[in-house]
Amino acid sequence: MPSLDLSRSRPLIGIVANEPSGDQLGALLVQALRERRPELRFIGVAGPKMLAAGCETLLPMERLSVMGLVEVAKVLPDLLRARRELVRGLRQLNPLLVIGVDAPDFNLGLERRLRARGIPTVHLVSPTVWAWRPGRVKQIRRSVDLMLSIFPFEADFLREHRVPVTYIGHPLADDFPLQPDREAARRALGISLDSLVAVATDPSLVVQAVDEQVGVSNASSAEDSGAEGPTATAAAPKAIKPPASKLQASGLHASEPCEESATALIAILPGSRRSEVELLGRPMLETAAWCHHQRPGLRFIAPMVSEALRQRFEAMRCEIAPQLPLKVVNGQSREAMAAADLVLTASGTATLEALLAKRPMLVAYRLHPLTYWLVTRLRLIKVRYAAMANLLVGRELAPEFLQDRCRADLMGPALLALLDDGERRAEIDAAYREIHRELRQNAAHRAAEAILALIDRAGDHRRHA
Fold it and tell me: Which backbone phi and psi does 218 adopt, to 5 degrees?
């Protein structure tokens, strides 16, 4: 942990975000608080977006980013050490209050320890106690002076259980436009809509579009993967399909490609944690390869939250589908979803982002087998759907492929069926727009006002104590 500046020349707020989605929410909150109180200083655990907003960090965010019962168990000693370090560091700084952003298993314990020492605490994003492990509501009562809820049904549940809560709406709903601009997003990513359309009408442009617009060279892919042979330009363009050995190893059987090569861009989001990319990267790449074999006009883009995850995903791609017309980018997940016609995503915050981008999606997820066995055996999950997008809509508009169903031979046909069903996509667009409007509450403003009111009340209490 870096040396701490204990100067109280500026009032200080502690804030801890454990993963990229929390970093995004935390950055919006820091900006909203700074607009009202420019003198405030923020220190805690921050990712790149919070750092850009002016937050200082005591620990690297990646140290705290892990998910799953078995996955957490592997690094539990280090997580507990990190929490002890943060408790000591934040106690030394004696902030006006501490904000934990999501990650309840880590942050509620941190908040409880700090609150017991007289530091007010706020938690942004309610734990899903309404969905699983409802007994955690007792821990919430002990840990927080204020819960900031981003979904209205959460606030009702928490009030019933005597938790102080303010419903603020969802910050991302304010940040996303109601009308996404697909063409602008494609320009931002260096993907030309005109060239993609041209590919569908002129097969001779396939390789050119892959090289220039999607950023994938068949020749370089072959070189990267150690393959030998002529470049793709040496012969007339053909449907690019995964090597037979890869298909056989995965239990897939290639069928003849469709004659019509409809052009579309599909975004692939295997998750923001290494464990997710390890579990989901292969079936998602196999699904993309299956779909591309059926529709050679399909193009793919995969945004990665870090260079390390990008390198791991690229290594998987070279092994599984080296010739897939896929552009891998650092960050830019929002632009990738807005640019896409359809999204194949891990369950998590990305499903909400795809909803806000009004994009049809397929949802895939895998846990470590032991984690999944424990969750199902102990009946810890109390909701019907895994994806927040489906929970908000109340029905499975986004088909879910979980655990053993997370396979290319199931996801590929479902993806193409969704791509072909214009009536279904229109229904999805209308439902997602309605949810977007309901969640747009100027959340960062509401959260900042609630936090500053708590600071003022705590200050009044100290002055009269």
Answer: -60, -35
For the stretch 331-350, pLDDT in tens is 899 999 999 999 999 988 89
Q: 101 pairs with which residues across the strands?
A: 17, 124
Cα-trace Rg, the chain:
24
**Range 247-252, long-range pairs (CB < 8 A, 24+ positions):** 247/289, 250/282, 250/286, 250/408, 251/407, 251/409, 252/286, 252/290, 252/408, 252/409
103: phi then psi, degrees, rounded to nearest 5? 40, 60
Distance CA 403, CA 411 (A): 12
> Any residues with CB less than 8 A from the CB of 348 and at least 6 apart, and which?
21, 271, 272, 276, 388
Cβ density class 79-100: b for 16+ within 10 Å, e for less: beebbeebbebbbebebbbbbb
As given in the structure block, the two tokens for residue 396 are: 């499975």
Let me know: does 399 contact 418? Beta carbons within 8 Å: yes
DSSP 261: -
> Which amino acid type is present at position 237?
P
Q: pTM of the entire structure?
A: 0.69
Residue 64: what are its φ and ψ, rounded to 5°? -105, -5
Strands 146-149 and 121-124 turn out to be: parallel
* Residue 434 CB coordination number (10 Å): 12
Question: Alpha-carbon distance 210 to 226, whole Å?
Answer: 20
Q: Which residue has the tokens 């910050």?
A: 171
Alpha-helical runs (H) found in 19-150? 20-36, 48-52, 69-93, 104-115, 137-143
Q: Taking Cα atoms as reference points, which of 132, 75, 47 lies closest to residue 383? A: 132
For residues 274 and 349, the answer to whether their CB atoms sit within 8 Å is: no
Q: Which of 145, 49, 156, 148 is nearest to 444 (CA)?
A: 148
Dihedral of CA 28/454/127/170: which sign? negative
pLDDT tens-digit map of 69-108 = 444 555 667 888 888 999 999 999 999 999 999 988 899 9
